[in-house]
Amino acid sequence: MLKEHLRVKSWGNSKAMRIPNSVAKQIDIHLEDEFTVEVDEKNRIILTKILPIEASEPNELTVAELFSEYNGESFTTEIQNLGEARGNEKW
Q1: Rounded to an integer, what distance in angstroms lies between the CA atom of residue 19 and that of residue 25?
Q2: Could you give the CA distance from residue 58 to residue 54 in angstroms, rounded to a whole number?
Q3: Cα angle vertex 46, ends 1, 6, to 5°?
Q4: What is residue 58's three-state secondary structure?
Q5: Which residues pair with 16 in a beta bridge?
Q6: Over the stretch 41-67, which tens digit does the pLDDT of each residue have?
Q7: What pLDDT, on a 0 to 100 scale, did the predictor assign at position 87?
Q8: What CA–CA distance (Å, rounded) separates 45 from 56?
Q9: Cα gap 91→89, rounded to integer Å
Q10: Nearest-5° angle of CA 59, CA 64, CA 70?
Q11: Concatenated DSSP letters of 6-45
Q12: Number of other residues whose CB lies within 10 A of the CB of residue 27
């Protein structure tokens, strides 16, 4: 278990702690990564890294799978042509 001593500093109207590089490397933290923060019943701070959407792609369902058990009324729709993809859209 890696253990580091951190000091709280002021950052604007907030408080901040720097994450040492040794910790960042061990848990694979990169700039712009996002985390959830929780405080447990013992006032411990729990940071959990939010995984990018790409990491969960293999578990994504197709439209057919999502509606495979749908028994409601039938409906019709019109397909819209939205043009060429301009970025990382998944069409």
Answers
A1: 10
A2: 8
A3: 65
A4: helix
A5: 9
A6: 999 999 999 887 655 456 677 888 888
A7: 77
A8: 26
A9: 6
A10: 110
A11: ---EEETTEEE-PPPHHHHHHTT--TT--EEEEE-TT--E
A12: 11
